[in-house]
Amino acid sequence: MRMRPTVSWTPAEDLPPGTTDLQPVADALSTGGVLVLSGAGLSTESGIPDYRGEDGSLSRHTPMTYQDFTASTQARRRYWARSHLGWRTFGRAQPNAGHRAVAAFGRHGLLSGVITQNVDGLHQAAGSGGVVDLHGSLDRVVCLSCGAFSPRRELARRLEEANVGFEPVAAGINPDGDADLTDEQVGDFRVVPCTICGGILKPDVVFFGEAVPPQRVEHCRNLVREAASLLVLGSSLTVMSGLRFVRQAAQAEKPVLIVNRDLTRGDRHALTRIALPLGTALTTVADRLGIPIDNQTAA
Asked: 110 FRET partner, CA 20 to 30 A, in 76, 120, 162, 198?
């Protein structure tokens, strides 16, 4: 029996309550050199649900693991059926005020970089440059046999041609772009192979149970070393892929500031945690700093 990946966290200590005081964030940004680490909570205002929290998708949805995806033909059929449907909705999501505020901070030279745990591409759509997609991006597909990359829109076209009439109604969409479908709705959905070698195609994202590429981790560690402070936006920091950078910053005595409505696994390392909605909080900070937020999204 395969072990389910760690997707939840229960505090083993009393953590300080969140505040609504945004001044530490404004102060850090005014000094510059802020490295942003964002999570799923930043995209909830764009209609993409969070994993955790009161209405998080983990309450009804178990994410696909790398081990199941690679070992089971049926698991891949189920994943691609659900992901194909979810992509239609996921791909229409637009950046929200939080994404646009981060882009504005970057344009004004206040950020040293952006690392995102999200796979939705909304930071880039809002105009942020040099974003590190820690867990990859759903808009690209990789072959597990030959390593070739291809655009997700190309795969979507091929899947539509192979599954004419596939129009089930999903119960919900998840942060990884996966739609909630029953086995009956998945039916005999046809999965298509790599056009180059006939190998297994996988979205270019890091599944649960899969390691982030070492060179990407080291790049992020370098960004932490070069930053003056670390600003965490909308992440519970439950999994080590993001928490390690918080620990690194704290060990280097760099200020860690967290904006997240719920407790996080990094709270004990943070100077403060602001328990406010991301869009409201970041818009307020931008106003305090006199930085206009562009309401237009990038092409």
From this structure: 120
